[in-house]
Amino acid sequence: MSKQINVALIGNPNTGKTSVFNQLTGLNQKVGNYPGITVEKKEGICKLPRGVKAHILDLPGTYSLNTTSLDESVAVELLLNKNDKDHPDVAIVVSDVENLKRNLLLFTQIKDLKIPTILVINMADRMVRKGISIDIELLEQKLNSKIALVSTRKETGIDRLRNLIADYKNLPKSQNVDISVIAPDYFERLKEAFPKEDVYKLWLVITQDVNFMPLEKTLIKDTSSFTTKSKSELKRLQQKETILRYQFINGILKETYKIDANAAKGFRATLDKVLTHKVFGYLIFFLILLTIFQAIYGWSEYPMDLIDGFFASATEWVKDTLPPGVFTNLIAEGILAGIGGIVIFIPQIAFLFLFIALLEETGYMSRVVFLMDRIMRPFGLSGKSVVPLISGTACAIPAVMATRTIENWKERLITILVTPFTTCSARLPVYLIIIALVIPEGSFLGLSYKALTLMSLYLMGFGAAILSAVILNKILKIKSRSFFVVEMPNYKLPLIKNVAYTVLEKTKSFVFGAGKIILAISIVLWFLGSNGFSDEFKNAETIVAQRIKEKGFSANSEVYFENQQETLGNNLNKEAAVTQLKDLEERALSQEIASYKLEHSYMGYMGKAIEPIVRPLGYDWKIGIAVLTSFAAREVFVGTLATIYSVGNDEEETIKNRMAAEINPRTKRPLFNLASGISLLLFYAFAMQCMSTLAVVKRETNSWKWPAGQLVFMSLFAYIVALIAYQILK
Amino acid sequence: METTVADLKRGQKGIIKEFTQDLLPIKLLEMGCLPGNEVELVQVAPLKDPIYINVNGSHIAIRREMALHIALDIIEDNAVV
Fold first, then answer.
1. How many CB atoms are located within 10 Å of the residue A37 CB?
2. Taking all residues of chain A, what is their mean pLDDT, rounded to a whole number?
3. Which of B50, B60, B63 lies closest to A487 in CB terms?
């Protein structure tokens, strides 16, 4: 059996650490979460020379071992805890050739933990252009470490890195910096109190919670021979440590690292001047947003239609091929519909993450943060909240997933919680049909009332998001780092491989993470809609057939016939006309049965049970059912109404005509009037009517607490607003 | 009033003198923002916040409130007007 060694990849953000990881592991990687927290855990397997295999763990990017966030403390915990199953045999510090000085700060810290450490100097392909020359041999000697000069873009140096890992037993384990010189007395006493431990490790344990609450910590208590220092004293010592390390690094780099200042600038400065410009910067950002929006909204329409069509025909096929029965129905209407409801989101998710990966890879994202930070700050959001909020207008699911770029947990949580208020594309079918029904013709300043209504619904969505962000910012008591230091990395051409991995991985994590929950809920909804306990439900076929025999087709079906005849026109062939009529009658019968069944299913009884609750909003039990079923996804609203009114297919015109003809038995007025229509529009604008979003929020926050709160707050808010609107307008 | 990073104009450079607030985030120091190092102002966002600087080769954006605590001596006055 071959031995497997543990390797930890660690490095500053933007050093191409992920590219090195991808180069080492290829597709042998998986992404998960650290147990109990939302930090992403990336691991993979790499084959090394001489039959050795390495388990590679890609630790979250960090600038040093002085932890300031959950991500960083994960890295420190792993490096300190020898008993952790992932504790590395070798640490690889990835650095970037242009920022070597800053990257070495982290390197010296890891070196001082006496873990065998390899230094990777990445982006070697940029050296010539930037006028950089490094004396690698001398640098290896000064740092007493092995160095691999790598270019992930040109794919050079990876073989040397593999060899160095395989040979890890011969790597030197000496320390670079003697930290005790910053406070000799203090460290002397520390050594006396804990003679078995290494002082630098002790120091890291002591200072872990200075900037951040650690996950778990072996407490170092005051003893007679040793007293701990106050937080501000410790912080001052940390500053001294940083200065000490930089002195060491500067001394070494003076002899080994040369940069020709004239070659360095140029491209970056010019691009920055344009992209962060007070006018052009915003204009370009706006254009990029438009493109992203168009992609998610427009381009993904084609693959989504294909998927939709595929699942529709798959459902047909299952129904035609398998023997009729509960099991077939479960597969066709429960499971297939559920899987279809998951797969349909893949194009939108893939497109959004394609763009986000491109923006991140090129370094543009930091410029957006720079441009937007001041504008978003009063709302408790950050510059990084902008992209999720805007992409929420397409679909909240990829948008919530996109909040991962926000490091500050409070800002991220607020962004996750308010994003579903933005008007997503699933609301559009509902809006369109109701606006067409209840908003009168006419125009104001050249804009039709209908267009204005649609626009105000979008604006209200944003308004609700911003307003609730302000409120959440006030009430959420979450301790998180309050400072803002954002690195502005150099511009780079994106690596296609990295972009492809990101898109693949995000799509996978949606399908297998949130997908499970979506599938489960849609099976439950199917069960409730297609089962009932009453005799009416069980004998629906005979009852409906009897009724048609005695009283003829229902008014609903008569409307259906009329519409169909209109569309079919006058058919001259008599025989064909007869078969057509027969065909129509058959379809009308099955539609009436479906409608009757739904009315008497569990879902139907639930709809009637909630009628007292929705009546003040101007709805009847039928709309109640539609509201309930559209919890699966908002656009289901239209489909459910189609079933209830037994119009059969969801041709928009047919349903619209049916809805317009519906009379409220109590008021004797059209059921869909201005008051109830506006009330429905507002309800759909604010209510959390999307189980997929809830599933994703659960996944991203790792707790049911937040999606549950979201559901209650948003639905309550929607109810109250719809109630007020109906009562005023009625 | 002491000159700070917040007073720099675009293209101006200075040498960091000291921190007027005792406990600036350690992250800033890790980025190379240390006394004796050179700072150049690259760009300022509207409302003069955040501020985009190049310190010791690190390009970072910081908020104005933090920049006010980094005192410096201006060394090169080639501000872009």
1. 14
2. 84
3. B60
pLDDT at B19: 87
**Nearest residue of A to residue B62, measured between CA atoms:** A485
CB contact under 8 A, B50 and A66: no
What is the per-residue pLDDT across A553-577, written as a single tens digit (0 to 9) for each?
776 677 667 666 665 655 556 777 7
Amino acid sitting at position A139: L
Q: What is the number of domains present in chain B?
A: 1
pLDDT in tens, A387-409: 788 778 777 888 898 887 777 78
CATH at B19: 2.30.30.90
What is the ipTM for the molecules in this complex?
Answer: 0.92
pLDDT above 80 for B39: yes
Percent residues over pLDDT 90 in chain A: 27
Phi-psi region of A648 (alpha: psi -120 to 50; beta: other; left: phi over 0): left
Residue-range definition of the domain harbouring residue B64: 5-76
d(Cα A270, Cα A128) in Å, to the nearest integer? 20
Minimal CA–CA distance to B71: which of B25, B35, B28? B35
Which residues, other chains included, contact A410 with Cβ-Cβ below 8 Å and sequence gap of 6+?
A380, A476, A478, A480
Please tell me the distance from the alpha carbon of residue A608 to that of residue A611, in angstroms, as a whole number: 5
| Angle subtended at Cα A350 by Cα A346 and Cα A355, rounded to the nearest 5 degrees | 155
Q: Does the CB of B67 have a partner CB in chain A at under 8 Å?
A: no
Of the residues A242, A277, A386, the best mutation for testing chain B's interface (the one with the most B CB atoms within 10 Å of its CB) is A242
Contact check, Cβ <8 Å, A373/B61: yes
- Chain B: residue whose CA lies nearest to A100: B57
Residues of B whose CB is below 8 A from A73 = none
In a domain, B15, yes or no: yes
Distances (CA, A) of A629 to A103, A486, A545: 54, 44, 27
CA dihedral A175, A177, A180, A183 (to 10 degrees): -170
The answer to the question of residue B81 being in a domain is no
User: Contact A64/B23, CB-based, under 8 Å?
Assistant: no
Of B23, B34, B50, the CB nearest to A370: B50
Q: Read off the amino acid at residue B16.
A: I
**pLDDT, average across residues A506-517:** 77
pTM: 0.78
Dist. CA A64–CA A241, nearest whole Å? 11
Kindly state whether residue B12 falls inside one of the protein's structural domains: yes
- Taking only the tens place, the pLDDT of each residue in A118-177 is 999 999 998 888 889 999 999 999 999 999 999 998 999 999 999 999 988 889 888 888
Distance to chain B for A371, nearest Cα, Å: 6
DSSP H or E stretch at residue A32:
strand A29-33
CATH number, domain A4-170: 3.40.50.300
Confidence grade of residue B77 (pLDDT, cut at 50, 70, 90): low
Residue B1 at interface with chain A, using a CB cutoff of 8 Å: no
Give the count of Cβ contacts less than 8 A between chain A and B: 105
Touching check for B81 and chain A: CB below 8 Å?
A: no
Pairwise CA distance, residues A594 & A579, whole Å:
23
Both tokens of A179, joined, read 């930290």
Query: How far apart are the C-alpha atoms of A384 and A280, rounded to whole Å?
Result: 19
Spell out the domain ranges in chain A: 4-170, 179-259, 532-599
- Min Cα distance A485 → chain B (Å) is 5
Q: Of the candidates B34, B59, B61, which has its C-beta nearest A246's C-beta?
A: B34
Residue B46 lies in a domain: yes
